[in-house]
Each structure stands twice: as structure tokens, then as C-alpha cells.
């Protein structure tokens, strides 16, 4: 961890201002902590009014926040327009990321026909196949396997034990974590002669710039066409994208979600955890799919969809829940109606 004064920290963040502090040279920070309860010599951040009362009582030495909230606090404040975004800069300053050497470890294997860019690190037991290309300033952590003819863009960081299969093309500033697989065969078989017969998958995977994949994610290669992951997509752990899928820009997918083959997802979609999305569908740009939702039909208009089936919007799902509750309670109501009829001497036919 690095130590800064409030004055030093402000000088490193463009546009930052100091409020509620007479002498910013004397205020020290060496860690980042939650605003509640806070820690001495730490900086916390406040971007939500719900946490304002906690910030008023925090033990932290500095609060990263907006000018609006700073006026209601007595603690020294580092004032910025978007504290939740600037928090990333603060974290990198106080907890500097590890810098890898420009080095190929002696027990790594690089094929003589592979091309390795400038200032790259190739980790222990990593292997880079024939005609593969690794862009400048990239990191392949221990155990990474880069297949023949695969291409990794500059500034990328491939996590430990990732497998990037042959012919996969990955853009700039790619980031992945442990045990991801990109470009494995799509899941297609034809049942004949009493067995499942495998259909070769001859497409590949094309990944755009600034994509991040969490641990144990798997992206299948296309069958005849390519599987495409657009610029800026972010995947949580254990996300699976089937063959021939096309994802637009800035699609965010939370953990344990699977997208079946040949489905298209538009730009700027958000998909919650534990969702199942069926094959050969289309999801409109800007759509939000709530966690645990099953999508079996095309979602042609951007909205918030939740539920178990058939792509209900949130209001539609709420109506469904009410109707289900009514059906469950029907027998109780029927018994009450019969009791009232009996007291009134009304006979009803069954």
C-alpha cells in the first residue's frame, strides 16, 4: 500500500477539490475502507444519499464525494463529479497493481513462428502456438495456452490456465481471470444410427476491445459463422456463450448465465445472474433481464424482463404473480362463499 496526504492525492486526480480541511498536508491516507464504520487514515466514498448519515459518523480521515454531499459533512472531503468512478483511480494509487516483467519464463514454450510484442510477460508453463500473435504490453499468466494462429491485442492480460483455442481473435486491453476457455467447439450433434454424431465447428470467436471475462467463463467457437463478442462487454464468473452468438457493445452478464447458440444480444444490455437464454433469439439493445429469468422468446423492445418464461416485462410479471396468488387462494374464497350462502339459506348447485 502507498501513503498519501490529502493534498498529494488531490494533485493526482484531475479536477479534484478539497473541502472541509484547513491543512490538507496533515491529513494522511493509506487505505480505502467502507464509509461505515470507516477507519482512521483511510478514505471512504459517498455517492448515494442513503449513506449520508453513515458518512456523518464515519471514522475515516477523508471522504471521496460530490460537492453537494461535502456541504453536509464535517470530515475532510476530496470532491469530484463522479466519486464511484474516481474510486478506481484512488484504489490504483493506494494499492498499486503488480507490474509484470518483460520476460518469458524459462519453462514457458513459444513456438518459433509465434510473434510476441514488446514488453510482454509469458508465465510459467504457458505455451504460445504456431503463428500466434501477442500484442505489445500483454501478460500471459502461468499455464495459459494460446492455440495456433490465435491473436491477442495489445495491453491484454490473460489470467492463469486460460485456453485460447486456434484462430481466436481478441482485441485490445482484454482481461480475463482464471480458467476461461475461448474457442472450444460449439455443442452440436446429430442423432443417427443409435448415437450422437458430432458436427465439426469451423468458425471461430472474435472478441472486441476492452472486454473482461470472469473466472471459468466459456465462449464457444462458431459452427459455420463466427461467435462475436462486441467491444466493452463484461462477463462475471461462469458465463457461457454458445456457438454463433453475436453480442453487441457493452453487454454486461452476471454469473451462472448461459446464452444458447445463434442468439443475438444488442448493445448496452444488462443480464442478471442465473439466467437461461434460449437459442436463435434476438434481444433488443438496452434490454435488462433480471436475475434468474428464463428467456424463451425474442425480446423485441427494450424493457426490464423478469420471470421464469416467455419474456415477460416487469409489470407483466407482477400481474402474473398476483394472478397466481389469486388462483392459490381460490379454494379458501370458495369455502367462505359457501359458508355465507349456507347461513343465508341459499342453496347452490355443484
TrEMBL record:
Pathway: Bacterial outer membrane biogenesis; LPS lipid A biosynthesis. InterPro entries: Hexapep, LpxD, Trimer_LpxA-like_sf, UDP_GlcNAc_AcTrfase_non-rep. GO terms for cellular component: membrane. The keyword Lipid metabolism applies. GO terms for molecular function: N-acyltransferase activity; UDP-3-O-[(3R)-3-hydroxyacyl]-glucosamine N-acyltransferase activity. It comes from Leptospira johnsonii. The active site is at 243 (proton acceptor). This is UDP-3-O-acylglucosamine N-acyltransferase.
Amino acid at each position: 500500500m502507498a501513503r498519501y496526504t490529502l493534498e498529494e492525492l488531490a494533485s493526482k486526480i484531475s479536477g479534484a477539490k478539497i473541502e472541509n480541511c484547513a491543512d490538507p498536508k496533515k491529513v494522511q491516507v493509506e487505505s480505502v475502507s467502507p464509509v461505515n464504520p470507516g477507519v482512521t487514515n483511510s478514505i471512504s466514498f459517498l455517492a448515494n444519499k442513503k449513506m449520508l448519515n453513515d458518512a456523518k459518523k464515519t471514522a475515516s480521515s477523508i471522504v471521496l464525494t460530490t460537492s453537494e454531499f461535502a456541504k453536509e459533512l464535517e470530515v475532510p472531503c476530496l470532491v469530484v463529479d463522479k466519486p464511484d468512478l474516481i474510486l478506481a483511480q484512488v484504489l490504483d494509487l493506494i494499492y498499486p497493481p503488480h507490474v509484470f516483467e518483460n520476460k518469458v519464463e524459462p519453462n514457458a514454450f513459444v513456438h518459433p513462428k509465434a510473434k510476441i510484442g514488446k514488453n510482454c510477460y509469458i508465465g510459467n508453463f504457458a505455451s504460445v502456438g504456431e503463428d500466434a500473435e501477442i500484442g505489445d504490453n500483454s501478460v500471459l499468466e502461468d499455464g495459459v495456452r494460446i492455440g495456433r494462429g490465435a491473436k491477442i491485442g495489445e495491453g491484454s492480460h490473460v489470467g492463469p490456465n486460460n485456453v485460447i483455442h486456434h484462430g481466436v481473435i481478441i482485441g485490445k486491453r482484454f482481461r480475463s481471470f482464471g480458467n476461461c476457455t475461448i474457442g472450444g467447439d460449439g455443442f452440436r450433434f446429430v442423432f443417427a444410427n443409435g448415437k450422437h454424431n458430432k458436427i465439426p465447428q469451423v468458425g471461430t470467436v472474435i472478441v472486441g476491445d476492452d472486454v473482461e471475462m470472469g473466472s471459468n467463463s466459456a465462449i464457444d467457437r462458431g459452427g459455420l459463422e463466427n461467435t462475436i463478442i462486441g467491444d466493452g462487454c463484461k462477463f462475471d464468473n461462469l458465463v457461457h456463450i454458445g456457438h454463433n452468438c453475436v453480442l453487441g457493445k457493452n453487454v454486461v452478464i452476471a454469473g451462472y448465465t448461459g446464452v444458447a447458440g445463434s442468439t443475438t444480444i444488442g448493445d448496452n444490455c444488462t443480464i442478471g445472474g442465473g439466467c437461461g437464454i434460449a437459442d436463435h433469439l434476438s434481444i433488443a439493445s438496452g434490454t435488462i433481464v433480471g436475475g434468474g429469468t428464463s428467456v424463451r422468446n425474442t425480446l423485441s423492445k427494450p424493457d426490464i424482463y423478469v420471470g421464469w418464461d416467455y419474456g415477460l416485462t416487469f409489470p407483466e410479471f407482477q400481474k402474473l404473480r398476483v394472478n397466481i396468488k389469486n388462483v392459490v387462494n381460490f379454494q379458501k374464497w370458495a369455502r367462505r362463499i359457501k359458508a355465507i350462502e349456507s347461513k343465508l339459506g341459499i342453496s347452490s348447485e355443484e
